[in-house]
Amino acid sequence: MRGRCSRKLGLLAKAGFLLWLLWLGYLLLERVSFPMSSSTDEDEEESNLQARQLAIEESGIDGLLAKPVVIKPLADDNAPGEWGRATHLNLSPEEKKHEEETVERYAINIYVSDKISLHRHIKDHRMNECRTKRFNYRHLPTTSVIIAFYNEAWSTLLRTIHSVLESTPAILLKEIILIDDFSDRAYLKSQLAEYISNLERVRLIRTNKREGLVRARLIGATYATGDVLTFLDCHCECVPGWIEPLLERIAENASTIVCPVIDTIDWNTFEFYMQTDEPMIGGFDWRLTFQWHSVPEAERERRKSRIEPIRSPTMAGGLFAVSKAFFEYLGTYDMGMEVWGGENLELSFRVWQCGGSLEIHPCSHVGHVFPKKAPYARPNFLQNTVRAAEVWMGSYKQHFYNRNPPARKVGHSKTKKKKRNCKYL
Ligand SMILES: *[C@@H]1O[C@H](CO)[C@@H](O)[C@H](O)[C@H]1NC(C)=O
């Protein structure tokens, strides 16, 4: 009796194990075959197959959901600037003169930029943990990428746009919103409009007078349909994997503004320097100019691993992601801020005093061309910082005025109405 029973049990167990195996096989098959059957466009399928196959091999099933809006063409190892290398050209005196003119005009070596592919690859030197991290793509919020520009050079602007399309998973990118802040260069008119009309998910909005960076960005934000607003400058290159950490962090806590690590792209050679050490955090001096600092010991101890986001008092400026709802709750940017300068500190002070936090994510990397000098003046910097000091610094504003006597003479226009939920100094 006993023997028969245990034999029966053994059989049952075997059958159960077989069923489980079959189920597992079915699940795997279904997941692997899903993307193949879902695509209908055969031409696209053809050209993407190779790159996609690569992506699948590299990143397993996650790779399918990580598929960018547009697949980057394969790298040409010999092309100038490929993999983020420096470009040095042998120029004739005439070409040299042309090169110098572009530097004079843009404060960036556009002659070199024009020689580099708009689709170049950047070598991924991020920490191992960043490169192997998996994301739950179906549960990340979507984003609208907002890029304002004024008289930007063609190749740097277009490289920014292509790099977003080629390094942002299609499932996460709602759209790119370009805001032309009343540029007057001819190539930014119909030529740009036509080029953009051939790109998927890119919208071009034009202001009908010069608004300045801050208001141009806010105008762009009003068109955004994504859950998260991601602001970029108009001469950037995103490193694949840049958006996921930002969106994951905002999914975890929607009152966080998250910045990528800003890598330097050399204005002269376009060499991409990826910052591989611990990122720096933002601070400020009493004149309210932005400063970089190393991460304090207490913050280092608070974090459980080196890929956790780092809290930062301030942000450098142009590059950050924020939940659309939280940005609106915060009262967005101060609309009274003219052109640029100071708005980054104002927003930083605001987020910390209104229940949010500001962080830098070590796994998110975006390259930025820092021009040789500021391409256009910041006549409103003093006025903007006075506004920031008056609203957010409480009695500490005395330090600002003491360090910055000319600020006393600047009247500040009507400042933003204070919000009830903020703790003012
Ligand atoms: C989100 O972040 C804010 C600011 O750091 C914090 O006060 C709040 O407790 C966090 N919320 C959650 C759910 O962790």
TrEMBL record:
Region (Disordered): 405-425
Keyword terms of this UniProt record: Disulfide bond, Manganese, Membrane, Signal-anchor, Transmembrane, Transmembrane helix
CDD domains documented for this protein: pp-GalNAc-T
Cofactor: Mn(2+)
Transmembrane segments: 12-29
Pfam short name (any one): Glycos_transf_2
Location of the Glycosyltransferase 2-like domain: 144-324
Compartment(s) of residence: Endomembrane system; Membrane
Protein name as it appears in the record: Polypeptide N-acetylgalactosaminyltransferase 4
Organism from which the protein derives: Ameca splendens
Name of the gene this protein is made from: GALNT4_2
